[in-house]
Amino acid sequence: MTIHIGAEKGDIAPTVLMPGDPYRAKWAAETFLKDMRCINQVRGMLGFTGTWNGHRVTIQGSGMGMPSLSIYANELIKDYDVQTLIRIGSCGGMQKHVGIRDVILAMTTSTLSTPSRGIFKELNFAPCADYQLLSAAHDAAKAKGVPTHVGGIYSSDVFYDERPDLNEQMIRHGILGVEMEAAELYNLAARYGRRALAVLTVSDHLITHEALPAEDRERSFGDMVEIALAAAFA
Ligand SMILES: O=P(O)(O)O[C@H]1O[C@H](CO)[C@@H](O)[C@H]1O
Ligand SMILES: O=c1cc[nH]c(=O)[nH]1
């Protein structure tokens, strides 16, 4: 057990999927895992372990924002020796050709700041995905026929953004979407020699202003879960 995770050491699998929303973790575990059981309820940040195609998998909520994800990813890596961490998140679309419900595989992520900022100081470290996971996720997405984009995303510290000028520059430089956790996940994976990827579903759009309701964000993003599972065990 750790400060934020109530599971015993063997209760967490070497592969963990991490949605921000703990109820998405519950839905994904109930929908895609066999023999699943709840392994964490501390602070309501639900986690479940079960099997997918015979492979042990944990699905653990990360909460919203990099400070929250950083707590869970640090403990999963350092206390439970997790090797593969795949974020399954929602994001805002930032390009006209990226549609609602499309999947984005985050090859790199730009950010103003992360909980790792203090380490890098003046260095602009470039957090990137594990290539093997990225390539396998792309294959899985193609096989499913899901509209999928691979490229850079923006990991923001705020949902309610006050920097339209910055968004304009990111759109101009091809950033596909915005979310709030992947950069710190990639930083931690690089630091501890683990594999990480963010598989995202576009839930709203910064240009068209379309937006899906909360229930869809919690319960309808099955394609990204299956893509993440296929990539983890490719
Ligand atoms: O749907 P999740 O995984 O929580 O991800 C996105 O949604 C939240 C904001 O609504 C942030 O956590 C952002 O990264
Ligand atoms: O962080 C996020 C997640 C979804 N949609 C956004 O606009 N931002």
From TrEMBL:
It is an enzyme of class 2 (transferase). It comes from the Bacteria. It catalyses: a purine D-ribonucleoside + phosphate = a purine nucleobase + alpha-D-ribose 1-phosphate; a purine 2'-deoxy-D-ribonucleoside + phosphate = a purine nucleobase + 2-deoxy-alpha-D-ribose 1-phosphate; uridine + phosphate = alpha-D-ribose 1-phosphate + uracil. Keywords: Glycosyltransferase, Transferase. The record marks 217 as: Important for catalytic activity. The active site is at residue 204. GO terms for biological process: purine nucleoside catabolic process. The keyword Cell membrane does not apply. Its EC number is 2.4.2.1. GO terms for molecular function: purine-nucleoside phosphorylase activity; uridine phosphorylase activity. Phosphate binds at residues 20, 24, 43, 87-90. Residues 16-211 form the Nucleoside phosphorylase domain. The keyword tRNA processing does not apply. A purine D-ribonucleoside binds at residues 4, 179-181, 203-204. GO terms for cellular component: cytosol. HAMAP family: Pur_nucleosid_phosp. Homohexamer; trimer of homodimers. Catalyzes the reversible phosphorolytic breakdown of the N-glycosidic bond in the beta-(deoxy)ribonucleoside molecules, with the formation of the corresponding free purine bases and pentose-1-phosphate. Belongs to the PNP/UDP phosphorylase family. This is Purine nucleoside phosphorylase DeoD-type. The lineage of its organism: Bacteria, Pseudomonadati, Pseudomonadota, Alphaproteobacteria, Rhodobacterales.
